[in-house]
């Protein structure tokens, strides 16, 4: 796997349910879930919508391959991984 660029967009957000959006990469679109917006605070907030570079990275906690977003202002170690509810995320993007 190599680095690629993706576009992250949002369509709904609530403090109780989280932030819902889409990632589009290489012509494919998938749905996302993140924590609610909390000022881009590390580990508790979704990240700003935008275009980001992502690189392959092992999600050691989950034991599987994932992707890491780079270039998120004020943040690092933002992973894209599987999950069902926003509390499964420590500031990462869930698919």
Describe this structure in words.
By secondary structure, the chain is an all-beta fold. 0% of the residues lie in helices and 52% in strands. It is built from no helices and seven strands. A hairpin with a 3-residue loop joins β1 and β2 (18-25). It is globular and about 35 Å long.
Keywords:
single chain, 95 residues, mainly beta, seven-stranded mixed sheet, 7 strands, 52% strand, globular
Classify the secondary structure makeup into a structural class: mainly beta
Shape: globular
Percentage of residues in helical conformation:
under 10%
How much beta, percentage-wise? Answer: over 45%
Gyration radius, to the nearest Å?
12 Å
Order of helices and strands: EEEEEEE
CA(first)-CA(last) distance = 18 Å
Strand order of the largest sheet: 3-2-1-4-5-6-7
Q: What about the largest sheet?
A: 7 strands, mixed
In round numbers, the mean pLDDT is 89
Please report the total strand number as a whole number.
7
Total number of helices: 0
Any low-confidence stretches, pLDDT <50, length ≥5? none
């Amino acid at each position: 796997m190599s680095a690629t660029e993706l576009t992250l967009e949002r369509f709904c957000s609530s403090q109780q349910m989280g932030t819902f959006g889409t990632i589009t990469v290489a012509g494919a679109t998938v749905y996302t879930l993140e924590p609610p917006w909390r000022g881009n605070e590390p580990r508790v907030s979704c990240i700003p919508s935008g275009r980001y570079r992502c690189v392959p990275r092992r999600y050691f906690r989950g034991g599987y391959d994932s992707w890491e977003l780079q270039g998120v202002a004020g943040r690092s170690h933002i992973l894209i991984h599987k999950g069902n509810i926003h509390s499964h995320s420590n500031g990462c993007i869930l698919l």
